[in-house]
Inverse folding.
């Protein structure tokens, strides 16, 4: 357990913009920063970071949180792990009790898998240096491949001894881990016994963006007809190969610096290029490029250079993945290695400066490259040429920018010897068809309920109170926003004193709102709002006034996100409502009299709605009630409710109907 004092110290020190900028590219806009959201696919930035509030909010998908919340969402950290990460980053010492075996057992399934991978990486790395097998391997294969000691340590390359068969399994169980957890982590194969998954293989740890071990790639050293040369970890709770790029944790800073990302195929290609001081490089690890991987790169740059081996068949097979990159609005170039070379072998045969010069001098636009590659095969066959043209048109139509499309049409027209007007017409058809499909798709999707306005309730002084339970939500959200934004402030309340004279007194916002709703037992219907309201009610009993920071850094992630949504989103009553009350539309910050209008209007209107609901419940009871006395009681109660509603409406200057 980490002490609350240390947690608070970490939270107060951590700067949300510094933390998030390690994972995505942020640009300054006014007092805030914006960037492409890492939690959903978007082409226009809607992800906003507020340094003043120390929060982030995506207005596209709705994700929000603090620096702690970001790490929990993005890196799948637990709350304590996020605190530890921030403490390490900012050099803050934290005191916590040593984890016991009981603590380990209490870890949830995902965290156990994280810990097992950290343990495995340590085991493999030490086996490479300390076991007889490892020393032999390190002295032969890795050195022959040109891997330096610095690279081996930087990338955490290791070795799983072949002779022991289940060396890691024994090591993990000896450290208190259960065999079923090792199976779930994908680190053992259940045959006649639990054999190590990467037995006899050099291991390449696969890291998350922040540097946590998620899985491994294993390279077999002995030739075998039964086993594949390369073997990756299976899909687990923490490892999803379609969402991971090898080396991104080491490359992200260089990608931002050079505004370009080299994309290669394998682990050794990445390591070799790093040794040649080409640091902005990642690998798809042999998998077909996915939309998730493209989005990872797009956080840092919109420019990708795909580095191909000389194998033409492999190049053609990758075209679909590159079309996905174009569709994401990114610029794609390609580099072809010399015949018989891949980046790994090329680096070993050339000086670092020659490698850099080759990459710079041999890049070409993907569209033109694809056109030249495919045009070699068509000859004079009109059917093949027609198919090629359609293929090229499809790729060009994926490019979002119209000017870029037109430039490629002009170049491809020359290469293919086809009129520009023909290509323009066909590309336009493709673009329109794709747009139409997107519109159809979006019209079928469920959109989140819009709770940012209450115009349907407040557009005119004469108010229609035909509603259902959902009618309460906008006002309940607004009440919560008032609590979190102004709860610690005071406002000027106007009343009558004991001498029957008009008098002004200062009242606390949170205290007033809570007491007004509690006295009538009008607690929020919405579960989130009720939970939020209860925190205030309990805090005020102890003379504690929770502020924005209390909620932004709250350990309950649901409360934290809801609070940030309230602070980041424009949950406000409509301007029509304000005009109907003759209230000047201006800021209520530090204006104690104007603050009163806001609070009174919201509370009074909410009470009217709640009383209206109560009268409807009475009407239902009257239909079923057969006892005369009970009927009379219900009628008296209904009349009293209507009287109170009329009085409240009078304070607002509105007329109720229905």
């Amino acid at each position: 357990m980490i002490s609350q004092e240390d947690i608070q110290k970490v939270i107060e020190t951590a700067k949300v913009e510094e933390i998030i900028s390690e994972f995505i590219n942020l640009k300054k806009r006014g007092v805030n920063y914006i960037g492409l959201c890492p939690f959903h696919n978007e082409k226009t930035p809607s992800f906003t970071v507020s340094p003043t509030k120390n929060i982030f909010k995506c207005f596209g998908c709705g994700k929000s949180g603090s620096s702690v919340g970001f790490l929990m969402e993005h890196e799948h950290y637990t709350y304590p792990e996020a605190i530890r990460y921030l403490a390490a980053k900012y050099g803050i010492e934290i005191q916590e009790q040593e984890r016991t075996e009981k603590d380990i057992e209490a870890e949830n399934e995902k965290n156990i898998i994280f810990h097992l991978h950290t343990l495995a990486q340590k085991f493999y790395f030490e086996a490479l240096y300390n076991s007889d097998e490892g020393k032999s391997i390190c002295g032969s294969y890795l050195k022959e491949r040109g891997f330096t000691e610095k690279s081996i340590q930087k990338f955490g390359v290791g070795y799983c001894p072949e002779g022991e068969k289940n060396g890691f399994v024994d090591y993990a169980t000896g450290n208190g881990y259960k065999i079923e957890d090792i199976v779930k982590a994908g680190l053992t194969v259940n045959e006649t016994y639990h054999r190590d998954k990467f037995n006899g293989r050099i291991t390449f740890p696969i890291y998350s963006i922040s540097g946590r071990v998620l899985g491994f790639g294993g390279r077999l050293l002995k030739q075998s007809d039964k086993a594949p040369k390369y073997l990756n970890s299976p899909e687990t709770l923490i490892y999803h190969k379609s969402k991971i790029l090898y080396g991104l944790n080491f490359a992200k800073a260089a990608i931002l610096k050079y505004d370009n990302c080299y994309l290669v195929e394998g682990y050794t290609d990445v390591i070799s290029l790093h040794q040649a001081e080409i640091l902005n490089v990642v690998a798809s690890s042999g998998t077909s490029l996915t939309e998730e991987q493209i989005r990872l790169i797009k956080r840092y740059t919109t420019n990708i250079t795909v580095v191909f081996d000389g194998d033409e068949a492999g190049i053609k097979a990758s075209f679909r993945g590159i079309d996905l990159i174009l569709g994401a609005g990114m610029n794609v170039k390609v580099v072809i290695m010399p015949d018989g070379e891949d980046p790994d072998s090329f680096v070993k045969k050339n000086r670092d400066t020659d490698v850099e010069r080759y990459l710079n001098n041999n890049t070409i636009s993907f569209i033109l490259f694809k056109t030249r590659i495919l045009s070699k095969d068509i000859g004079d066959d009109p059917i093949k040429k027609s198919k090629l043209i359609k293929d090229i048109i499809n790729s060009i139509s994926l490019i979002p920018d119209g000017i870029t499309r037109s430039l490629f049409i002009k170049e491809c027209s020359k290469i293919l010897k086809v009129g520009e007007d023909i290509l323009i017409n066909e590309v336009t058809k493709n673009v329109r068809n794709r747009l139409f499909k997107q519109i159809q798709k979006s019209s079928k999707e469920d959109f989140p309920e819009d709770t940012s306005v209450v115009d349907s309730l407040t557009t005119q002084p004469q108010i229609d109170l035909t509603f259902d339970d959902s009618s309460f939500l906008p006002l309940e959200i607004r009440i919560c926003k008032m609590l979190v934004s102004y709860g610690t402030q005071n406002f000027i309340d106007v009343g009558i004193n004991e001498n029957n004279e008009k008098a002004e007194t200062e009242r606390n916002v949170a205290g007033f709102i809570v007491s007004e709703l509690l006295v009538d037992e009008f607690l929020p219907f919405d579960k989130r709002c009720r939970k939020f309201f209860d925190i205030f009610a309990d805090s005020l009993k102890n003379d504690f006034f929770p502020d924005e920071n209390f909620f932004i850094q709250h350990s309950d992630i649901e409360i934290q996100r809801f609070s940030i949504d309230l602070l980041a989103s424009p949950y406000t009553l409509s301007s029509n409502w304000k005009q109907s009350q003759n209230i000047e539309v201006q800021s209520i910050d530090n204006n104690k009299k104007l603050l009163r209008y806001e609070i009174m209007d919201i509370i009074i209107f909410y009470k009217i709605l709640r009383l209206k609901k109560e009268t409807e419940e009475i009407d239902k009871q009257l239909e079923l009630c057969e006892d005369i006395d009970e009927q009379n009681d219900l009628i008296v109660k209904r009349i009293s409710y209507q009287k109170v509603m009329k009085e409240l409406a009078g304070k607002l200057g509105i007329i109720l109907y229905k």
Notes: The radius of gyration is 32 Å. The domain at 362-446 is CATH 1.20.50.20 (Pheromone ER-1). The CA atoms of residues 205 and 216 lie 5 Å apart. The first helix runs from residue 4 to 13.
